[in-house]
Amino acid sequence: MIGGDIILFALLFVTAVNLARCLSALRSLLYIMRNVHPLLYQQVDGRGFFSPQGNLSKQVRLYYYIKSKEYTHHHDELFTAKCDRVRQLFILCVALIVVTTVAAFIL
Question: Distances from the Cα of 32 to the Cαs of 29, 41, 50, 76, in angstroms?
Protein backbone atom coordinates (compact mmCIF):
# COMPACT_ATOMS: atom_id res chain seq x y z
CA MET A 1 0.00 0.00 0.00
CA ILE A 2 0.96 3.62 -0.42
CA GLY A 3 2.12 5.21 2.80
CA GLY A 4 0.71 8.41 4.22
CA ASP A 5 4.09 10.11 3.91
CA ILE A 6 4.17 9.53 0.16
CA ILE A 7 0.67 10.94 -0.27
CA LEU A 8 1.55 13.99 1.82
CA PHE A 9 4.80 14.50 -0.10
CA ALA A 10 2.91 14.27 -3.42
CA LEU A 11 0.35 16.82 -2.23
CA LEU A 12 3.09 19.17 -1.06
CA PHE A 13 4.86 18.84 -4.41
CA VAL A 14 1.70 19.54 -6.42
CA THR A 15 0.89 22.51 -4.17
CA ALA A 16 4.39 23.95 -4.59
CA VAL A 17 4.24 23.59 -8.39
CA ASN A 18 0.85 25.29 -8.53
CA LEU A 19 2.05 28.09 -6.26
CA ALA A 20 4.95 28.66 -8.65
CA ARG A 21 2.50 28.70 -11.59
CA CYS A 22 0.33 31.24 -9.78
CA LEU A 23 3.27 33.54 -9.04
CA SER A 24 4.51 33.25 -12.62
CA ALA A 25 1.07 34.12 -14.00
CA LEU A 26 0.86 37.05 -11.59
CA ARG A 27 4.25 38.31 -12.73
CA SER A 28 3.18 38.14 -16.39
CA LEU A 29 -0.10 39.89 -15.51
CA LEU A 30 1.86 42.75 -13.94
CA TYR A 31 4.04 42.97 -17.06
CA ILE A 32 0.97 43.24 -19.30
CA MET A 33 -0.73 45.61 -16.85
CA ARG A 34 2.18 48.04 -17.09
CA ASN A 35 1.40 48.71 -20.77
CA VAL A 36 -2.36 48.21 -20.87
CA HIS A 37 -3.56 49.67 -17.56
CA PRO A 38 -0.82 51.96 -16.17
CA LEU A 39 -3.05 53.57 -13.54
CA LEU A 40 -3.88 50.22 -11.95
CA TYR A 41 -0.21 49.25 -12.23
CA GLN A 42 0.69 52.27 -10.11
CA GLN A 43 -2.16 51.62 -7.67
CA VAL A 44 -0.98 48.06 -6.97
CA ASP A 45 2.69 49.09 -6.76
CA GLY A 46 3.64 47.04 -9.80
CA ARG A 47 7.35 47.87 -9.69
CA GLY A 48 7.75 46.84 -6.06
CA PHE A 49 5.10 44.12 -5.97
CA PHE A 50 7.47 41.22 -5.37
CA SER A 51 10.05 43.16 -3.38
CA PRO A 52 10.38 42.77 0.40
CA GLN A 53 9.49 46.45 0.78
CA GLY A 54 6.25 45.98 -1.18
CA ASN A 55 3.18 47.71 0.17
CA LEU A 56 0.75 45.03 1.38
CA SER A 57 -2.33 47.26 1.16
CA LYS A 58 -1.60 47.92 -2.51
CA GLN A 59 -1.14 44.20 -3.15
CA VAL A 60 -4.50 43.53 -1.52
CA ARG A 61 -5.98 46.06 -3.95
CA LEU A 62 -5.01 43.76 -6.84
CA TYR A 63 -6.53 40.80 -5.00
CA TYR A 64 -9.89 42.55 -4.67
CA TYR A 65 -9.69 43.78 -8.28
CA ILE A 66 -9.34 40.21 -9.50
CA LYS A 67 -11.73 38.71 -6.94
CA SER A 68 -14.59 41.06 -7.85
CA LYS A 69 -13.89 40.62 -11.60
CA GLU A 70 -13.59 44.34 -12.27
CA TYR A 71 -11.43 43.48 -15.29
CA THR A 72 -14.36 42.09 -17.32
CA HIS A 73 -15.12 45.50 -18.83
CA HIS A 74 -11.55 46.14 -19.94
CA HIS A 75 -10.94 46.60 -23.68
CA ASP A 76 -7.84 44.39 -23.97
CA GLU A 77 -8.65 40.70 -24.37
CA LEU A 78 -5.15 39.56 -23.38
CA PHE A 79 -5.41 41.46 -20.10
CA THR A 80 -8.80 39.96 -19.25
CA ALA A 81 -7.56 36.47 -20.17
CA LYS A 82 -4.53 36.87 -17.88
CA CYS A 83 -6.73 38.11 -15.05
CA ASP A 84 -8.99 35.08 -15.49
CA ARG A 85 -5.97 32.78 -15.45
CA VAL A 86 -4.56 34.35 -12.30
CA ARG A 87 -7.97 34.10 -10.63
CA GLN A 88 -8.36 30.42 -11.54
CA LEU A 89 -4.82 29.57 -10.44
CA PHE A 90 -5.32 31.40 -7.15
CA ILE A 91 -8.52 29.46 -6.44
CA LEU A 92 -6.76 26.20 -7.30
CA CYS A 93 -3.78 27.08 -5.11
CA VAL A 94 -5.95 27.94 -2.11
CA ALA A 95 -7.92 24.71 -2.52
CA LEU A 96 -4.70 22.69 -2.70
CA ILE A 97 -3.34 24.38 0.41
CA VAL A 98 -6.53 23.53 2.30
CA VAL A 99 -6.48 19.91 1.11
CA THR A 100 -2.79 19.53 1.97
CA THR A 101 -3.32 21.00 5.43
CA VAL A 102 -6.27 18.72 6.12
CA ALA A 103 -4.32 15.70 4.83
CA ALA A 104 -1.36 16.59 7.05
CA PHE A 105 -3.57 16.48 10.13
CA ILE A 106 -5.40 13.30 9.08
CA LEU A 107 -2.35 11.33 7.97
Answer: 5, 9, 16, 10
